[in-house]
Each structure stands twice: as structure tokens, then as C-alpha cells.
Amino acid sequence: MSKQALIVIDIQNDYFPGGKWTLDDADAAADNAASILEAARARGDLVVHVRHEFESEDAPFFTPGSQGAQIHPKAASRAGEPVLLKHKVNSFLGTGLKPLLDEQNISEITVIGSMSHMCIDAVSRAAADYGYGVTVIHDACATRALEFNGITVPAAQVHAAFMASLAFAYAQVISTEHYLTGAEH
């Protein structure tokens, strides 16, 4: 049986209403994340939290030491659960994530958090490249609308495009309900 880890990416205060960089449906995604956290803990999976801080005080969000850069209460870590600090989009860069997973003989990871089009995408692709089996819980992830070349892409479309891309070649992409029912993932 493979050893599993749940990687909780950037569920931080600035992404929620009143924060500096709010995401669409952040609360609903965090509610699903909380359910997934409880299930992973009950199964005895390794739970790893990743928290992003930019290195500059003039960052648009997640400024060093700010309340906005703290993990949101819905996804709070428990005693003994590692919390890794990152400064880049990819949670493997400049952190101890890969050595931690390897020390625990982890072969399968489940990814939840934010933002779908950035940090979720980056960690999922990197993990697959490292040879881990990757599952992404799509409704426990959140993003926001993006603008490119004068076109605004709604958050739901951004999210769907990135989940479809990950599902094509990098990860199994499933719902919270699928994860919680214990269906093979």
C-alpha cells in the first residue's frame, strides 16, 4: 500500500473576503479543505501545510509577517503537522517539501488549496515530474478572474481550464465527495 500525504497549499487570510487578494469561492473551497483535512488525519496520512510569503514588504499580498499571510483558521495546522514557508510559486522550490516526503516514503500526494492557476498547478506538475502519484481535489481549490490582452477570463473558467489541463497528464482530479467516500484515488 502506498504512503499518502495531503499537501495544503496557501489557504491564507489574504485570499478570503477582506483580504488583499480575494479569490472566488475561497470560503467554499476552504470548507471542503477542512473536511479533507479531517479525513486525511483520521486515515493517518502525512499532512503538510505550505504557507507563502513574498520576500518584499511592497508585495501585493502575503507580505512578510502580516496577518494576511497567516494560514486561515479553516485550514489551521495541528501539533506535529509540518508548516513549510515558501517564497516561490512552486512549493518544492526553496523548501524542504521533497526531502520531507521522501523521508516519510510518500509515493502518493493529494493537493488542495490556492490558487488553482498558480501554486496548485505548479506543485502538481512538479510532483508528477518527481514521480509522485498526484490527486487534486478540484472543489477544495480556489482562484480568481484573470485578464489577458484585454480579455477578462472569469474565475470559474480559469479554474476549469487548469483542472482540465492537470487531469490531462499530471493528476487525477476529483471532487471532495469522491475523496471522502473512500473511492480509489
From TrEMBL:
Keywords: Hydrolase. The keyword Hydrolase applies. It comes from the Bacteria. One of its GO terms (molecular function) is hydrolase activity. The keyword Metal-binding does not apply. It holds the Pfam family Isochorismatase. Residues 5-177 form the Isochorismatase-like domain. PANTHER family: ISOCHORISMATASE HYDROLASE (PTHR43540:SF1), PEROXYUREIDOACRYLATE/UREIDOACRYLATE AMIDOHYDROLASE-RELATED (PTHR43540). This is Cysteine hydrolase. The lineage of its organism: Bacteria, Pseudomonadati, Pseudomonadota, Gammaproteobacteria, Pseudomonadales.
